[in-house]
Amino acid sequence: MGGTWVHWGQPHVWREISRYQMRTELESSFDFSRGVNHFQLNTTGGSATMSHDEEVCRTSSKTSGGQAKKATQDALLASALGKFVNVDGAFGRKIMPQPHDLFHVPEARQLDKLSAKDRLDAIALTLSPSERAVLQGFVLLCSGGTLETMSFLEFLHWWAICGYTYQGCLDYLITYKFRGGQSSFAIKFFQEALCTKKLAYAFNSPIRSVVDTSSRVEVTTRDGRQFQASRMICTVPLNVLNTVSFNPPLPQGKRSAISVGHVNQCVKVHAEISDKDMRSWSGITYPENPLIYAIGDGTTPAGNTHIVAFGAYQHHIHAEENLEETMNAVKSLAPGKIDIQRLVFHNWSKDEYANGAWFFSPPNLLADHLEDMRARHGNVFFANSDWAVGWRSFIDGAIEEGTRAALAVNTELRETGKLAANL
What we know:
The chain has helices at residues 11-19, 52-55, 76-85, 108-111, 116-122, 129-143, 152-161, 166-174, 183-195, 252-260, 323-331, 365-374, 395-416; strands at residues 5-6, 26-28, 38-43, 46-50, 176-178, 207-212, 217-221, 226-229, 232-234, 245-247, 267-273, 281-285, 291-299, 305-311, 340-345, 380-382. By secondary structure, it is of the alpha+beta class. Among the domains are: 200-262 and 355-416, FAD/NAD(P)-binding domain (3-Layer(bba) Sandwich); 267-345, Alpha-Beta Complex (Polyamine Oxidase, Chain A, domain 2), CATH 3.90.660. The strands form 4 sheets. The protein has a 7-stranded mixed β-sheet with strand order 4-3-12-13-14-11-15, with helices on both faces. The chain has a 4-stranded mixed β-sheet with strand order 8-7-6-10, with no helix packed on it. Helix 3 (76-85) crosses helix 6 and helix 10 crosses helix 12. Belongs to the flavin monoamine oxidase family. Residues 1-409 form the Amine oxidase domain.
């Protein structure tokens, strides 16, 4: 239900995929070999279809950002995104030349003052109605928030880390997945830890409080159990940290980041539909539909098409609260083509251990508090993909953060002679 897609350009996740010899266990979400084989755009102005080649720019370009100049067959999304990210005349390459070092160019901090709406307003006269519709739909897919509340800089970071092209965004963000699901990958980490014979674990143990006495850290669960260790690695997501009491209190910068939180309240709905030809379909429906972006994602054991659809806080629904509304939102993605056999979803917004989907920042959060979120607090280390410097909010970012914290703890424990926690 989450963390589906990976890519060999994500360094930390690919290292683990290679170590676990899972390179051949990936498959593509997209299959354009049969069926309708088109991209569908539904807006207030009507519905239109185009080939995937028209949707995605595959032509050579005379510009450093990989975006072709306007032409008859130019890609709609690539054209719109090129205008959106081109704040430096180089499609983001000058202002963010090193995506893993967000503020390598100091002027990038100023861009974190902008929301997506601010940037859209700045380029409004350059966008056709169709460009504006697909652009807004795509950036909302990425943020799961609203145009007013999502950071333009964080979107630019996604763009840069995907290679500064729309095709790169597709390849990195929503193409390659494990044939056996993400759990087939995650279990490898757990099994490896078990094999060390040094792992003690407790599931279903939500944390109430953390007390750092300088000589040890004491964690208390909601049901009163206590665990002690010389060091603690806290992996609680940003939007959940306010449910845990810390003593001594967290520093002001970290508390400020927690009070702001991230904006992603994405709605993700999986649908099994009977039309086999929809396997090669994708589309954007904006602005009237709660579900904005969807793709044909696979074929079910029954031979039906599996599609996955995304909505944002811009036009938010809770999928389980009104199933008729949810089904109508799915059907509206491709009117007359979607015969629903089954729906599957999880409400991340109401999940108390998430309070939202993947991290996406509001304006100013990264410029003001990225280092605060990453900083340790006494004997407590904080490791979560929400404040990774590279693939922030992705599995790759989680591995980046976990290995960073693990190395720091291991180094300190070796230096002090404390090599094992007291659980």
